[in-house]
Amino acid sequence: MKVPVVVIGAGACGLTAALAAKDAGVEVLVVERDATPSGSTALSSGFVPAAPTRFQNGDDSAEKMFLDIQRKNHGQADADLVGAICRASGPTIEWLADAHGIPFQLVEGFLYPGHSVERMHSVPEKTGEALLASLLRACRDVDMLRSARVTDVSRKEVIFQRPDGSKESVEYGALVLACSGFGGNAAMVKEHIPEVADALYFGHAGNQGDAVRWGMKLGAAIRDMSGYQGHGSVATPQNILVTWALMTEGGIQVNAEGQRFSNEHLGYSEQCVPVLQQPGGIAWCIYDERLHQLGMTFPDYRDAHAAGAVKRNPSLPRLEETLAKVKGYASGGRDPFGRDFSRKPTLVPPYYGIKVTGALFHTQGGLVVDPRARVLDAAGRPLPRLFAGGGAACGISGPRAWGYLSGNGLLSAVVLGRIAGQGAAA
Ligand SMILES: Cc1cc2nc3c(=O)[nH]c(=O)nc-3n(C[C@H](O)[C@H](O)[C@H](O)COP(=O)(O)OP(=O)(O)OC[C@H]3O[C@@H](n4cnc5c(N)ncnc54)[C@H](O)[C@@H]3O)c2cc1C
C-alpha cells in the first residue's frame, strides 16, 4: 500500500492535518492505535486560543497573543515558531469553523492567567470530547485505520501492528507525526521531568514518546524535553479536573493546615509542584457561593460536584485566620506571595472547598520543527518529507512548567496540524 500523505495519530493535530491535506486535494491516511480515537484531546477542556477571529470582540491581534505567550515562557521558546503559530491561529479556527463545520464560539466570562484578552475558542459543550467528536465528524471522508499501533517508521514506510499481533506496512509520500508526547511513558518522564515522576498523569496513556523515538532515529533534533503542562487542581481522590477559573476569579489554595503557600495567579501549570510539596501532596481550593456558581458552568466542575468532591464549609485548622489575612490584602495589605487581591470580590461565607492534587497533563518538549512544521536535524536542516505538530513537536512553552500559557497545547496541535497537513500535501 502506498499513500501520498500518512498521518500517525487521530487527535486534534492528526485530524486537522488530515483535513488540510484533503482540502489540498491529496489522498491521506490516518493511522491510529486506538479503536476509538481519544488522545489527550478528548481528555482536555477543549479550549483553543486564537487571535484575531470573528468570534472575538475586535480587541485582539496575533501580536498581542505572541507577547502573552512569550511573556509566560520568559522568551525561551522559538520566537519564529511562536510568531508563525499566532499568525496562523485566527485563520485556522475560522477555516475549521467555515470549511469543516466545527461550531467554535468564544469562551466568555473569565481570563486565564497570562491572557490579556478573551481568546479561547471552544465548541458549545466546552469539552475536549466534543471537540474531538466534531473533528471526527469533519473527517468522515478521510481514510482512517483504527486499532493500528505504529511500531516503527523508516524514511519510506510506516509499520503498524494489529490487535492480533500481525504487522502491516504502508509506504508514504510524506509523513505527519501527530502521535503526541511522552507523558504516558514513565521512564521518559523520569528521565526528562523528574519533578513529576511520581505525580498523577492525567493525559492519554497512549502518549508513549514514539514520535521522539522515531524522529531521533531518523536524525531529528529534540528540544525543551523538561517542559510540560502541569496542573495544580485535580480533585482527589475523584481525579476530576477542577477549573482554574475558581482561582483567577478570587479563590485561594491552602494546605491541609489551612495555610496558603503560593501566588495562585502565576498559573495552574507551575502550581503542580508546590501542591505536590504540601503535606500529603494535596491542597484545598477554597472559594465561595459566587465562584461555585461560576464553577457550575463547567462540565468538569459539575462532575466533581456530582461525585461529592465539593464540600460546603470545609473544616481546616487555620482557615479562618487565612481568610481574614486575605481580606486584609484586598484592602491595602501586601500579600507575601505577591498576589494582587484588589481586583476581584472578597470571598464571603458560606465557603466551599475541594481537595486537590498536582498532576502532569501534557509534555511540551519534542521534535524540533520550523514554522512550516518540518522536522529539523541538529544543524537546522529539514528532514525529507517529515512533519510534526501537537505533542509530538517541541511546543511553545520553553523548558519548564511555568512556561505553559493556557491553551499552548491545543494551539500547537491545531495550527501546526494544519500547517503540517498543507506541507505534506505539497
Ligand atoms: C486534562 C487535560 C486538559 C487539557 N486542557 C487543554 C485545554 O483546554 N487547552 C489546550 O490547549 N490544551 C489542553 N490540554 C493539552 C491538550 O490536550 C494537548 O496539548 C493536545 O490534545 C495534544 O494534541 P495531539 O493531537 O498532539 O495529541 P493527542 O490528542 O494525544 O492525540 C495523539 C493520538 O496519537 C495516537 N497515537 C499515539 N501513539 C501512536 C502510535 N504508536 N500509533 C498510532 N497512533 C498513536 C494516540 O492514540 C492519540 O489518538 C489538556 C490536557 C489534559 C490532559
Fold and architecture overview:
- The chain is α+β, with helices and mostly antiparallel strands.
- The chain contains 13 helices and 20 strands.
- Strands 1, 2, 6, 7, 8, 9, 19 and 20 form an eight-stranded mixed sheet that branches. Strands 10, 12, 13, 14, 15, 16 and 17 form a seven-stranded mixed sheet that branches. A three-stranded antiparallel sheet has the order 3-5-4.
- The radius of gyration is 21 Å and the shape is globular.
- It starts with a strand and ends with a helix.
- Flavin-adenine dinucleotide is lined by residues 8-14, 31-34, 37, 39-41, 43-47, 149-150, 178-180, 202-204, 206-208, 210, 229, 241, 361-362, 390-391, 407, 409-411, 413.
Question: Gist?
Answer:
This protein has helices at residues 12-23, 39-43, 62-72, 79-100, 128-138, 186-192, 210-217, 245-248, 272-276, 289-295, 299-306, 319-330, 408-425, and strands spanning 2-8, 28-31, 48-49, 105-106, 120-122, 143-145, 149-153, 157-161, 167-177, 200-201, 222-223, 228-235, 240-241, 252-254, 282-288, 311-312, 351-363, 366-367, 374-376, 382-388.
Strand-helix topology:
Layout: E1 2-8, H1 12-23, E2 28-31, H2 39-43, E3 48-49, H3 62-72, H4 79-100, E4 105-106, E5 120-122, H5 128-138, E6 143-145, E7 149-153, E8 157-161, E9 167-177, H6 186-192, E10 200-201, H7 210-217, E11 222-223, E12 228-235, E13 240-241, H8 245-248, E14 252-254, H9 272-276, E15 282-288, H10 289-295, H11 299-306, E16 311-312, H12 319-330, E17 351-363, E18 366-367, E19 374-376, E20 382-388, H13 408-425
Parallel strand pairs: 1-2, 1-9, 2-6, 9-20, 10-17
Antiparallel strand pairs: 3-5, 4-5, 7-8, 8-9, 11-18, 12-13, 12-17, 14-15, 15-17, 16-17, 19-20
This protein binds flavin-adenine dinucleotide.
Flavin-adenine dinucleotide binds at residues 8-14, 31-34, 37, 39-41, 43-47, 149-150, 178-180, 202-204, 206-208, 210, 229, 241, 361-362, 390-391, 407, 409-411, 413.
